[in-house]
Amino acid sequence: MKKILNFSFVVLSSILISCSGSSEEGSSGGGGGGPIDPGPVGPTASKLSKPDNNSECLEVDAVKFEWAESSNTDSYTIVIKNLLTQEQKSQTTTSKSVEITLTKGFPYSWYIISTNTTTATATSDKWKFYLSGEAQKNHAPFPADILAPKPGATVTAGAIELSWSFSDIDTSDTHTFDIYMDLKDGSTVNSSNYTATKKSITITDPGTYYWKIITKDNHGSTSDSGVSTFIVID
Predict the structure, then answer these.
(1) Are 87 and 57 in contact (CB under 8 A)?
(2) What pLDDT shows up at residue 2?
(3) Which of 6, 116, 118, 156 is deepest in the core (most CB within 10 A)?
(4) Strand 127-131 and strand 55-57: pairing?
(5) What digits encode the pLDDT tens for the residues 31-72?
(6) pLDDT for 144-153, tens place per residue?
């Protein structure tokens, strides 16, 4: 009887030692159980402040751009695009504001890219404004933004939904859209005076399709989205 009890004690002790050893080894984490250094942290996106989105800007000499400070950021790059000529300019600064001279009488978009010593960047929302120089009674609508199909997207033949968005400083205006689409350069009218910002079409022939949206207001002012493409496959 004593031999059996002694044997049982030895086995139980071995099990307890084995479990204890596993627990200690697991808690060590191979490095003493200290916190793991996550490494450099990328920046966060900045929030835009001025000029207001979809607003009219009346600065005579230079437009002052302002935005909020973003975390983990060493510098900011502002990117400004003339929405009619497609001309783009950028400038990098460590400040949260900058003044830039632009040509009057054009709509513009702008956004901020936040960067630091890491390879990561963060991009703000994109805002639009119209640089008048002096107050105007009517403004052309901003060029429409193509939403779907996304530029360069590949879609399957059949029912395809076209969609876009737009904005206008003159909020009381009414708007219609002309849709251009073909397999060559997007110069063929598909629909005129369309009133919605979505349209379902059926395409059975594969190929690269070129399309654009002309936005029109009730005063006769227009804007061109620029040609976008998508690929249709069987």
Answers:
(1) no
(2) 44
(3) 116
(4) parallel
(5) 555 666 566 789 999 999 999 999 988 877 789 999 999 999
(6) 999 999 999 9
Q: Measured in whole angstroms, how far is the alpha carbon of residue 145 from the centre of its chain?
A: 12
Q: Residue 175 in contact with residue 216, Cβ under 8 Å? A: yes
- What distance in Å separates the CA atoms of residue 8 and residue 65, rounded to the nearest whole number? 80
Residue range 103-131, pLDDT digits in tens: 998 999 999 999 998 888 999 999 999 99
Question: Where in the chain are the domains?
Answer: 48-131, 145-233
Q: Which fold has domain 48-131?
A: Immunoglobulin-like (2.60.40)
Q: Which CATH superfamily is domain 145-233 in?
A: Immunoglobulins (2.60.40.10)
